[in-house]
Design brief:
Length: 319
Amino acid sequence: MRLEVRTLRLILALDEGGSLAAAAERLHVTPSALSHQIKALEQDLGLAVFQRGSKPLRLSPAGGRLLAFARRIVPEFQAVEEELARLAAGRSGRLFLAIECHACFDWLLPVLQAHRARWPDVDVDVRFGGGFSFDALEALQRADVDLVVTSDPEPRAGVTYEPLFDYEALLVMAPTHPLAAASFIAPQDLAGETLLTYPVDRSRLDGFAHFLRPAGVEPRAVRAVDLTAVLLLLVASGRGVAVLPDWVVRADQTRGALACRPLGPTGVRRVLFAALRAETKRAPYLDTFLALARAAKDGRASLYSKPPDQAPDETADAL
């Protein structure tokens, strides 16, 4: 014979109900219909599943073995059913992100917190994709991740890019640094400086890729720092200068802890993109993430911190 989930549910109902009538009520069938199901099951097994005449109803050894199996399998089966129902309704799923931007973690945390408040059943994972051994866009093409945050869009088959927000790359230094007196920074100004950077390929660093390299200028020294907080402490203490997105240094600049100057007379402005698979059917929780990310630069992610059964405010469409 072939066991089915309905068979296991029948055994659970017999054990929990303690009688045929109670079991039938649990299964939403008539006692007569349940008796026919039990008879058919016992014919298939060649064994009785409960002891006739016992009050309350007692399972036979065969029924007890099925009960132990049912207690393991049925809850797992129900959990899968519920998960699939949430998937079908768009309430759950996965959102695996790759971030090609060290500084993005400063706005990503509140975005993920706001996203979780709205979509608690969505499985979210984050990988850093700006290193030397992990190609985030290739992972996107393989469907290992669902979205890549990058400021360096590359033509890739099956990949599309949506802008999140623009930013300006600024030279950041201690307020007492001599370059703080300049109205803007020329590439040659950094030839004698220690440049603090993130430990990623220079092609992914705005200061090198879009400012120093085109001018053929090399800093006196380059020091890699993993954490933004440590990097800012080193800059503030005069241990070097750094090129960072404006959103990272806005608060420190406002309170006078750091000085910031544009790169060149017109500045270096960049756009942060979300890379997506072109054929991806847009899940509503992905749209929420994009909206939160677009609002994050201005600190407005909290506008979206609403339960799943509520829509964002109409004003959010303009963020």
